[in-house]
Amino acid sequence: MDVRIISWKTKGLRVPDWEINIDPTNGKKTAMIMMPSGMGKTTTLKLLRYSFCDYSKILQKKDILSLQNLNTKELVGEFTINIKIDNQKYRIKSIFDFNKCTLSYETTDPIDGTNKGLNLPDEINKYLDQEYIEKTFFDLELVEKLFESTAATDSINKLYKLYYFKQINNFLDEYLVKKQNESSSGKISKKDLEELKLNRDKLINKQKQLVDLNEKNVNELANLKLEKKKLDKIKNDIENSKKTIKEKIDNSREKISFAKNDLKEGFTEFYSKIRNPILINNEFKKKLINFEKNLNNLKIPESVGRAFFDDLIKSKSCLCGHEMSDDMKENILKSKESILSEDTWLILSVLKHKIRKEAEKETLNLTNLLANIAEKKGKLSIEERKGNEIVDGIDDNKYQEAVKRLNKIDERINQLDLFFKEYYEAPKRTDSPDDNSIKKISNLLEITINKIGEATATENISKKITIIKDILKQTEKKSLDFITNDLVEKINKEIPRVMPFEKIFVKDIKNRIVLEDREEGSAGQQARIGYLFLIKLLDRPNLNFPFIVDSPVTALDDISRSEIATTIASHLNNQYIGLILPKEREDFVDVLEEKTNNKVHLIVAFNTIDKETKKLVNLAKEYDVIKDPDKNYIISYDNKDFFWNFKTNIKSENSNE
SS3 of 76, please? Predict the structure, then answer.
């Protein structure tokens, strides 16, 4: 049977009241629906899950309330999905009553019309249980879990219905208990028999409790290990940054010191220049040049002589250009002896040389000098700011939170390890019904059942049931081995294509996916192998069902993205829907387009209620994506320019960032 999603519509839920169309009949069986973070990708994934499997008795109240629109707070929310099953149209409506915290369904089919309940064809229902739906509609975290604990084997057991073997075992146990209770044989006293039966029932309950607790603890351990891995990365990144922080600070301090010295030299140069008045005042410069010229005109001799002053007294004007008065001449006659000393002459010679030298220089531009000082000061400020940023970048709070949580995780993992150690302890003679070992309890139960069998003459039935259970156990093991080996072979066949540069093969699937020659791979490597595992696991010859992934390639490298896209395009016959963030486009969507000959729906969807989305609306207008004034959202279909240029970190015109 072929199942395709055509469209879905939401009302009163924690996503905009919109309708998204992805009709695959035009040959586009792949759809990329891009939304900004926080616009409802994860909520959409949940709503799609709830549409194909009856979650009305699975969801808790908090799960239902988490779907309510917090702005409108409508009491009823609806999610309507239109699908085609072998080209026959069906409509499924999920109705969420937020007042009663209930989920109900309406189904419209081409034969019976609209009826209450989730009513899909029996041929599909035999596949669509919760486990299958949560494997076909998933996020990247599911892929990570396949490499932890028992997630991979659990998926095989549930999807291939291998748990039926355990159900048959339970039916056989119940049948034996029924026959023992019906027996009227009196080989022991009635009181002793009743006591044995009470012990048996107590052990059966204890066995069930331990199995349920073990399953719960296994899942908790897997989640804790994933969380621990992420926190360890955060912790190590901060620690690594701290290791290099001294080097960064020292480098910053060196740059700051250099900038300070450069500024100091700038000030020194500035002060040295402005101390020379001839270079900062043109009028003063002209007068000094005239003074030096007059000295030359008087031809002051190289050696000191009296003729110099005799000529000076006879001249009509002084060296400075003023007219010589009688008083001035008299002063020169009185002072010429001291003026004609060697020291005085040397001073005059130096002054003359200085005037000549400085007069050749251009007058200083004070504006440029001050601008140079400002530039050096600006460079110092930049280096000081960078130094502060390095210090501020040491996120001690985040580090302490990570360490604190890691300590709690380690403490809980130690507790779980003690549980598992006790859970698998071997039986002893001193075992008690209060023990927490599944092996001990199962052994005590077997002993008790045998005693009851002897007392009620049901040993023959018990032996036959034991034989049947042994056959079922061997059949289950061989089935699991066959499926596992087949999956490993199919995955490894694709490895050279999806991992061309570093081929990492799957060794086995023992509870989790086990890799050859290594404990684990990188996030990108494990994601590619995980995708192959799910594609091969979900492949059904009689069912072609949609494959929907939330954030399919977040945090993966370009090679991983490209090869996952190639796998989807070339080896997945199912309809594929990716709920992506803008940062997931590169090396993923473009490869999908190339490999499918552009048969990909490119959809952009976002609400227009928030103030932040105003910039997105303006961006949409630039690419001719028109907003309906009556709607509080924008959906763009197959506008490639808008899809590839859509961005959420738009800076406003007045932004200082």
Answer: strand
Task: Kindly indicate the confidence band of residue 415, based on its pLDDT and cuts at 50, 70 and 90.
Answer: very high
Q: Could you list the residue range(s) of the whole structural domain that residue 63 is in?
A: 3-158+482-609+619-645
Do 493 and 376 belong together in one domain? no
CATH classification at residue 575: 3.40.50.300
Q: How far apart are CA 215 and CA 208, in angstroms?
A: 11
- Distance CA(26)–CA(185), nearest Å, equals 73
Secondary structure (3-state) at 30: strand
The DSSP code sequence of 554-588 is: TT--HHHHHHHHHHHHHH--S-EEEEE-GGG-TTT
The count of domains in the chain is: 2
Measured between alpha carbons, how far is residue 64 from residues 15, 29, 97, 133 in Å? 14, 31, 8, 18
Question: Each residue of 449-499: pLDDT tens digit?
Answer: 989 988 888 889 989 999 999 999 999 999 999 999 999 999 999 888 878
Helix residue ranges, H only, 361-458: 366-392, 396-423, 438-456
Query: Distance (Å, rounded) from C-alpha 561 to C-alpha 118?
Result: 36
The CA distance from 433 to 574, in Å, is 51
Identify which of 542, 557, 609, 606 has the alpha carbon closest to the alpha carbon of residue 579. Answer: 606
More confident residue, 343 or 552: 552
Kindly tell me the burial class for residue 337, based on how many C-beta atoms sit within 10 Å of its own C-beta (0-12, 13-18, 19 or more): exposed
